[in-house]
Amino acid sequence: MTVSLAGPPRLPARRPPRQPDSPPAGLRRARARWPAAAGLAVAGILLALDSAGAQSVYSRGGGEAGGAADQQEAAAQAERIVASSLARIGRAESVSLRLRQRVRIGDRVLVGAGRYLQAGQGEEQRFRLETTLSCDTEAFSITEVCDGLFCWTDRREGEEPPTLHRVDVQRVRAQLEKLKAPDPADTAPYLGGLQRNLWWIRQWFQFTSASAAELDGRPVWVVEGTWPSASLPSLLPELAEAAGKPGGLQPEELPDGVPWAVRFTIGRDDLLPRRYEFLAIPGPRPVAAGPVEPIAVVDLLEIELNGPVDTTAFYYQPASEGLIDITDFWVSSLGLMRP
Questions:
Q1: How confident is the model at residue 60, as a pLDDT?
Q2: Quick one: pLDDT at residue 318?
Q3: Which terminus of the chain, N or C, has less C-beta within 10 A?
């Protein structure tokens, strides 16, 4: 889970098959087809971000605020902050970090943890993402490894049989060349791992504002994003009627688990992503109108860029039993991320 800094996202013509970053099966049902852009192998503890008193970077003294020009300026700045943050991860010589997550679906709360490693750039880039997510009765885990030749996804979802998928990296790169991607060697956002999770959020959500705040004593940007007006009805046709009425679609009209908005927390000193959250009105439908709140929170912790990484983490030799090569479908479904 990709920008014209001011324009709306250009959504892919076709949704990819079930992605390595899509949620576990039990959660997929509860989320009523939460789009792949919002699906994630997330990990973390739900910590409310206290931005009370945070000052918008667009606030102006001694004049009127909130005009159309101010809104456009705010959106352009918010998009630049997110784009720069994702570029920091993608262009680093190496990345090592830990993840925590908390997800609320209906009356269930799932918590988990994970680890992400990345090394190299361009065609030499490798990555490994491991996450777990569990509640009282179910446990889920996802391992995604790109060894340069293939991207592997090993998924274990409660009592369901484990699945092992494989995508040929060279064929993905060749397709990106045909699509005239700016840098076809930059395949990670199209394959898996942390970069895909972050890029797909940016692909589907349009960022509109950024505010200065603090997180655990660190100065951060809190960047808010929402769906472009036509996106949700195109992904969930059952919402088309509600979207066409006066006032448009409202948060309480979304299926339980489908996010209404997204929020990034990004370091002001280093532009590294520290947290991302999906917001909605939780609970069984129908639900009363009210403020949105976090339904999924991922914290990125102990981030180290350009340090030593154990490259043996990128060697992956799974048993061939149950292996499904999904390269044909994956390649045929590729669409370029927004620049």
A1: 30
A2: 87
A3: C
Phi, psi of 163, deg, nearest 5? -125, 150
Task: Check: CB of residue 152 under 8 Å from CB of residue 129.
Answer: no
Residue whose tokens read 């929020």: 263
Q: Are 6 and 79 in contact (CB under 8 A)?
A: yes
Six token digits for residue 33: 């087809």
Digit-coded pLDDT (tens) for 137-188? 889 999 999 999 999 999 999 889 999 999 999 999 999 999 999 999 999 9
Instruction: Please compute Rg for the chain using Cα positions.
Output: 19
Mean pLDDT on 301-310: 97
Task: Write the DSSP assignment of 20-59 as a string of letters.
Answer: TTSPPHHHHHHTTS--TTT----B--------TTPEETT-
Amino acid symbol at 280: A
pLDDT, mean over the chain: 82
As a whole number of angstroms, the distance between CA 278 and CA 104 comes to: 10
* DSSP-derived secondary structure for 256-325: TT--SEEEEEEETTT--EEEEEEEE--SSSS------EEEEEEEEEEEEES----GGGG-----STTEEE
Domains in the chain, CATH or no CATH each: 25-56+66-332 (2.50.20.10)
